[in-house]
Design brief:
Layout (H helix, E strand, L loop, with lengths): L8 H90 L9 H8 L2
């Protein structure tokens, strides 16, 4: 740590103190940089967790929306099918009302036998 071949003991002591002081200054700078790196990594990790959590929330929200959309489409199709059946049945009912029904055929024998009593 000390420089080789100092002239006097005081010079040796002074130069050693300067080197120790310089070493301490550099050490403090390195510790400050190390602390900054640790703080930055902590911040980056928090940010990564936050983004990952939001991503999971969006995925679950998208799955829920897809499920609800599927139910809505099925309900819509069932309602359309029911409505088509209703219109079809209503059409058949009104169509039957428009078509004259043939008179029931009664055989004369049964008619005469029915009126005998």
């Amino acid at each position: 740590m000390c420089s080789p071949a100092p002239r006097t003991v005081l010079d040796t002591h002074a130069s050693c103190r300067e080197e120790v002081q310089r070493w301490r200054t550099e050490d403090i700078e390195q510790k400050v940089l190390g602390n900054a790196v640790v703080l930055w990594e902590r911040y980056a990790e928090q940010n990564r967790r936050f983004v990952e959590e939001r991503s999971e929330q969006l995925k679950s929200f998208a799955n829920l929306a897809a499920l609800i959309t599927g139910f809505a489409i099925v309900a819509f199709l069932q309602a359309c099918h029911t409505f088509k059946m209703f219109v079809y049945m209503h059409y058949l009912h009104t169509a039957e009302a428009c078509i004259p029904c043939p008179a029931p055929r009664v055989t004369p024998v049964l008619y005469q036998a029915h009126n005998l009593g």
